[in-house]
Amino acid sequence: MICPKCQADDTKVIDSRGAQNGKAVRRRRQCVKCNFRFTTFEYVEVQALLVVKSDKRRVPLDRGKILKSLVIACNKRPVSYDVLMQTTNDIIASLNDKSTYEIKTEVIGEVVMEALKKIDEIAYVRFASVYRKFKDITEFKAELEDL
Ligand SMILES: [Zn+2]
Protein backbone atom coordinates (compact mmCIF):
# COMPACT_ATOMS: atom_id res chain seq x y z
CA MET A 1 0.00 0.00 0.00
CA ILE A 2 1.53 3.32 -1.10
CA CYS A 3 1.73 6.13 1.48
CA PRO A 4 -0.85 8.79 0.51
CA LYS A 5 1.44 11.53 1.85
CA CYS A 6 4.93 10.80 0.50
CA GLN A 7 4.12 8.02 -2.04
CA ALA A 8 6.66 5.64 -0.50
CA ASP A 9 5.60 2.04 -1.12
CA ASP A 10 6.80 0.75 2.24
CA THR A 11 4.03 0.89 4.85
CA LYS A 12 3.31 -1.38 7.78
CA VAL A 13 0.07 -2.49 9.43
CA ILE A 14 -0.04 -1.33 13.06
CA ASP A 15 -3.60 -2.41 13.87
CA SER A 16 -6.19 -4.65 12.22
CA ARG A 17 -9.78 -5.19 13.29
CA GLY A 18 -13.21 -6.20 12.01
CA ALA A 19 -15.60 -3.46 10.93
CA GLN A 20 -19.17 -3.17 9.67
CA ASN A 21 -20.35 -6.32 11.48
CA GLY A 22 -17.60 -8.47 10.04
CA LYS A 23 -18.18 -7.34 6.46
CA ALA A 24 -14.92 -5.42 6.34
CA VAL A 25 -11.47 -5.35 7.90
CA ARG A 26 -10.15 -1.98 9.01
CA ARG A 27 -6.38 -1.57 9.12
CA ARG A 28 -4.28 1.24 10.57
CA ARG A 29 -1.11 1.61 8.57
CA GLN A 30 2.02 3.62 9.07
CA CYS A 31 4.48 4.79 6.45
CA VAL A 32 7.97 3.46 7.20
CA LYS A 33 9.55 6.53 5.57
CA CYS A 34 7.56 9.54 6.89
CA ASN A 35 5.58 7.86 9.74
CA PHE A 36 2.26 9.13 8.32
CA ARG A 37 -0.67 7.06 9.60
CA PHE A 38 -3.72 6.19 7.53
CA THR A 39 -6.60 3.70 7.45
CA THR A 40 -7.57 1.17 4.80
CA PHE A 41 -10.65 -1.06 4.54
CA GLU A 42 -10.74 -4.49 3.01
CA TYR A 43 -14.04 -5.80 1.55
CA VAL A 44 -15.17 -8.88 -0.31
CA GLU A 45 -15.35 -7.97 -3.95
CA VAL A 46 -18.89 -8.31 -5.22
CA GLN A 47 -18.51 -9.85 -8.63
CA ALA A 48 -21.12 -10.07 -11.33
CA LEU A 49 -22.12 -13.61 -12.23
CA LEU A 50 -20.95 -14.96 -15.56
CA VAL A 51 -23.12 -17.23 -17.63
CA VAL A 52 -21.27 -20.07 -19.37
CA LYS A 53 -22.91 -20.67 -22.75
CA SER A 54 -22.96 -24.10 -24.42
CA ASP A 55 -20.09 -22.99 -26.70
CA LYS A 56 -18.09 -22.04 -23.55
CA ARG A 57 -18.45 -18.30 -24.09
CA ARG A 58 -18.91 -16.27 -20.90
CA VAL A 59 -21.39 -13.40 -20.79
CA PRO A 60 -22.54 -11.37 -17.77
CA LEU A 61 -25.81 -12.55 -16.25
CA ASP A 62 -28.50 -10.43 -17.86
CA ARG A 63 -31.37 -9.59 -15.53
CA GLY A 64 -33.42 -8.27 -18.46
CA LYS A 65 -33.22 -11.61 -20.26
CA ILE A 66 -34.52 -13.49 -17.23
CA LEU A 67 -37.44 -11.09 -16.86
CA LYS A 68 -38.16 -11.32 -20.59
CA SER A 69 -38.30 -15.12 -20.51
CA LEU A 70 -40.79 -14.91 -17.63
CA VAL A 71 -42.90 -12.34 -19.51
CA ILE A 72 -43.00 -14.63 -22.59
CA ALA A 73 -43.84 -17.74 -20.54
CA CYS A 74 -46.63 -15.85 -18.72
CA ASN A 75 -48.11 -14.29 -21.87
CA LYS A 76 -51.91 -13.95 -21.43
CA ARG A 77 -51.72 -15.64 -18.03
CA PRO A 78 -53.15 -14.02 -14.86
CA VAL A 79 -49.72 -13.05 -13.50
CA SER A 80 -48.97 -9.41 -12.65
CA TYR A 81 -45.83 -7.58 -13.67
CA ASP A 82 -45.02 -7.08 -9.97
CA VAL A 83 -44.94 -10.84 -9.49
CA LEU A 84 -42.65 -11.21 -12.51
CA MET A 85 -40.28 -8.54 -11.16
CA GLN A 86 -40.25 -10.17 -7.72
CA THR A 87 -39.68 -13.60 -9.26
CA THR A 88 -36.75 -12.19 -11.26
CA ASN A 89 -35.26 -10.87 -8.00
CA ASP A 90 -35.75 -14.26 -6.34
CA ILE A 91 -34.09 -16.06 -9.27
CA ILE A 92 -31.07 -13.76 -9.18
CA ALA A 93 -30.79 -14.07 -5.38
CA SER A 94 -30.92 -17.85 -5.69
CA LEU A 95 -28.21 -17.85 -8.39
CA ASN A 96 -26.04 -15.59 -6.19
CA ASP A 97 -26.43 -18.10 -3.34
CA LYS A 98 -24.66 -20.79 -5.32
CA SER A 99 -21.21 -19.54 -4.20
CA THR A 100 -19.76 -19.56 -7.67
CA TYR A 101 -18.96 -16.83 -10.15
CA GLU A 102 -19.82 -18.90 -13.20
CA ILE A 103 -23.18 -20.49 -13.91
CA LYS A 104 -24.14 -22.76 -16.77
CA THR A 105 -27.21 -21.82 -18.82
CA GLU A 106 -28.81 -25.16 -17.88
CA VAL A 107 -28.66 -24.25 -14.19
CA ILE A 108 -30.38 -20.93 -14.90
CA GLY A 109 -33.05 -22.76 -16.90
CA GLU A 110 -33.72 -25.11 -13.97
CA VAL A 111 -33.98 -22.22 -11.49
CA VAL A 112 -36.35 -20.32 -13.81
CA MET A 113 -38.48 -23.46 -14.24
CA GLU A 114 -38.72 -23.99 -10.48
CA ALA A 115 -39.76 -20.35 -10.02
CA LEU A 116 -42.43 -20.56 -12.73
CA LYS A 117 -43.81 -23.76 -11.21
CA LYS A 118 -44.68 -21.73 -8.10
CA ILE A 119 -46.41 -18.85 -9.90
CA ASP A 120 -48.28 -20.38 -12.86
CA GLU A 121 -48.48 -24.00 -13.99
CA ILE A 122 -49.31 -23.24 -17.62
CA ALA A 123 -46.39 -20.80 -17.83
CA TYR A 124 -44.19 -23.46 -16.29
CA VAL A 125 -45.18 -26.09 -18.86
CA ARG A 126 -44.70 -23.58 -21.70
CA PHE A 127 -41.22 -22.70 -20.53
CA ALA A 128 -40.28 -26.31 -19.77
CA SER A 129 -41.47 -27.53 -23.17
CA VAL A 130 -39.31 -25.00 -25.00
CA TYR A 131 -36.43 -25.29 -22.59
CA ARG A 132 -36.27 -29.08 -22.42
CA LYS A 133 -37.18 -29.43 -26.10
CA PHE A 134 -39.63 -32.24 -25.42
CA LYS A 135 -38.87 -35.03 -27.84
CA ASP A 136 -42.43 -36.18 -28.23
CA ILE A 137 -45.88 -35.59 -26.89
CA THR A 138 -45.57 -38.50 -24.42
CA GLU A 139 -42.84 -36.72 -22.54
CA PHE A 140 -44.92 -33.54 -22.54
CA LYS A 141 -47.91 -35.42 -21.11
CA ALA A 142 -45.77 -36.98 -18.40
CA GLU A 143 -44.68 -33.51 -17.36
CA LEU A 144 -48.32 -32.35 -17.22
CA GLU A 145 -49.30 -35.32 -15.05
CA ASP A 146 -46.51 -34.40 -12.65
CA LEU A 147 -48.18 -31.09 -11.81
ZN1 LIG B 1 5.05 8.41 3.81
Describe the SSE topology:
Layout: E1 11-19, E2 24-31, E3 37-43, E4 50-52, E5 58-60, H1 63-73, H2 81-96, E6 102-104, H3 105-119, H4 121-131, H5 137-146
Parallel strand pairs: 4-6
Antiparallel strand pairs: 1-2, 2-3, 4-5
Helix pairs in contact: 1-2, 1-4, 2-3, 3-4
The structure holds zinc ion (ZN).
What does this structure look like?
- This protein is α+β, with helices and mostly antiparallel strands and 147 residues long.
- The chain folds into two domains: 11-43; 50-146.
- It is 43% helix and 22% strand.
- A three-stranded antiparallel β-sheet has the order 1-2-3, with no helix packed on it. Strands 5-4-6 form a three-stranded mixed β-sheet.
- Strand 4 and strand 5 form a beta hairpin.
- It is elongated.
- The chain starts with 10 loop residues before the first strand and ends with a helix.
- The structure holds zinc ion.
Low-confidence stretches: none
3D shape: elongated
Number of helices: 5
Helix content: 40-55%
Distance between the termini: 59 Å
The mean pLDDT is 85
Number of domain units:
2
DSSP strand count:
6
Q: How are the strands of the biggest sheet laid out side by side?
A: 1-2-3
Q: Give the ordered list of helices and strands.
A: EEEEEHHEHHH
**How much strand?**
15-25%
Biggest sheet record: 3 strands, antiparallel
The radius of gyration is: 24 Å
What class would the helix/strand composition place it in?
alpha+beta
Bound ions, cofactors and other small molecules, one mention each: zinc ion
